[in-house]
Amino acid sequence: MSLFSFFNKKSSAPTARERLQVLLAHERSTVGHSDLVAKLREEILAVIAKHVQIDNDKVNVKMDRGEKVSTLEVDIEIPLNADVKKDVKAA
Amino acid sequence: MSLFSFFNKKSSAPTARERLQVLLAHERSTVGHSDLVAKLREEILAVIAKHVQIDNDKVNVKMDRGEKVSTLEVDIEIPLNADVKKDVKAA
């Protein structure tokens, strides 16, 4: 799936919402940190939620564990009026 | 750029290192949170560094700000012997 194909839809009208997509892929060796993607998932969502007000039912998360590659896809629709948390200090 | 094309190279030999790739794309409306990708960049790197020991010169970060879409690409090579930080509590 090419992330950019998602955004290549030419839309002349100003979009009524914004979209944030995160794609994470972890290529493991035979013996490796197998659950790194699962560990990162919650914390990456938490980082995003610190900066943008998120509506839980507009968040789509897909995880896939292949033989050598684990992937995480997060697709968040951000309504236009979602407030951006101005000066959020990094934890 | 398709993230998965990156991983589709069939390699029979066990890979001598692991790779973590993060792709972030923010489709903005005409007026929107323009620097969301820049804000998320440092914190996502910090989340990853909490879980895996990272060698700074093996981290490749690319940011691109298009008219409607900003993207962040992070490509991290994780040496096999990199220690995984066992039970790291989310902050």
Automatic annotation (TrEMBL), chains A, B:
Keyword Cell division: yes
Pfam families associated with the record: MinE
InterPro entries: MinE, MinE_sf
Lineage start: Bacteria, Pseudomonadati, Pseudomonadota, Alphaproteobacteria, Hyphomicrobiales
Keyword terms, alphabetized: Cell cycle, Cell division
GO BP term, pick one: regulation of division septum assembly
Family the UniProt entry places it in: Belongs to the MinE family.
Gene3D superfamilies hit by this protein: Cell division topological specificity factor MinE (3.30.1070.10)
Lineage top rank: taxon: Bacteria
SUPFAM superfamilies, alphabetized: Cell division protein MinE topological specificity domain (SSF55229)
Protein name listed in UniProt: Cell division topological specificity factor
Task of the protein: Prevents the cell division inhibition by proteins MinC and MinD at internal division sites while permitting inhibition at polar sites. This ensures cell division at the proper site by restricting the formation of a division septum at the midpoint of the long axis of the cell.
Keyword Cell division listed: yes
